[in-house]
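Example for tutorial group B:
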């Protein structure tokens, strides 16, 4: 799942991005209101975490822009503004939750997961599938043929990306940017190693192979033709 964080304090922004990434989410970080609003209304996110006081335009205006665009994406305000009237304003503008700084990351993560669970009820579903492979996004659980598969956070994010873009050949550069938030370096084999480890878990013990290498292009997850 993909989360947008809009936070102008660099230390806090880096902390949030690292923590949420380690929890298995794909995270984009914006450091000002204009960039935050642009990303929120031009990209697809499952949730946004907004500060209120931001350079450019504030969090209230970002939220209003999101709702005017017709998006019902869950929004969590994370701000030092702790007055009751601020909380009321945020909720009345359409926010789904409001957490005051300083905060415990464990509480933030719990609230994020609750909002994602709540928001997913109006979406296409919580489980991604390909043949007998299933990925439960909320329980953070993968199974194939009913057998539980233990994945690391990065393996889970990689498999989610492949399933969401099922049938599409994904270049190594895209995988690196989406899963590791890094520019692709031809001298590193981090993507190849991760795909190899993922295959060992979801393909090696099964007759039907789902993940393929497309030489010179990248990787694709799909169900072989002629397979029910």
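The residue assignment follows.
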């Amino acid at each position: 799942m993909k989360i947008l964080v809009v936070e102008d304090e660099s230390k806090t922004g880096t902390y949030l991005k690292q923590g949420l990434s380690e929890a298995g989410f794909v995270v984009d970080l914006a450091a000002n209101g204009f960039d935050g609003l642009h990303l929120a209304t031009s990209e697809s996110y499952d949730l946004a975490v907004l500060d209120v006081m931001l350079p450019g335009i504030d969090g209230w205006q970002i939220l209003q822009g999101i709702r005017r665009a017709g998006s019902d994406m869950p929004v969590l305000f994370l701000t030092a503004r702790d007055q009751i009237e601020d909380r009321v304003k945020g909720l009345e503008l359409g926010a789904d939750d409001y957490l005051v700084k300083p905060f415990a990351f464990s509480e933030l993560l719990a609230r994020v997961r609750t909002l994602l669970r709540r928001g997913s009820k109006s979406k296409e579903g919580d489980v991604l599938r390909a043949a007998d492979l299933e990925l439960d996004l909320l329980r953070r659980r993968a199974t194939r043929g009913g057998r539980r598969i233990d994945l690391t956070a990065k393996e889970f994010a990689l498999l989610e990306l492949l399933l969401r873009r099922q049938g599409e050949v994904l270049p190594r550069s895209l995988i690196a940017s989406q899963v590791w938030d890094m520019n692709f370096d031809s001298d590193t084999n981090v993507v190849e190693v991760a795909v190899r480890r993922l295959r060992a878990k979801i393909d090696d013990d099964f007759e039907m192979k789902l993940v393929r290498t497309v030489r010179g292009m990248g990787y694709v997850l799909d169900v072989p033709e002629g397979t029910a």
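The chain has two domains: 2-120, 127-221. Compare this with the pattern of hydrophobic and polar residues in the output above.
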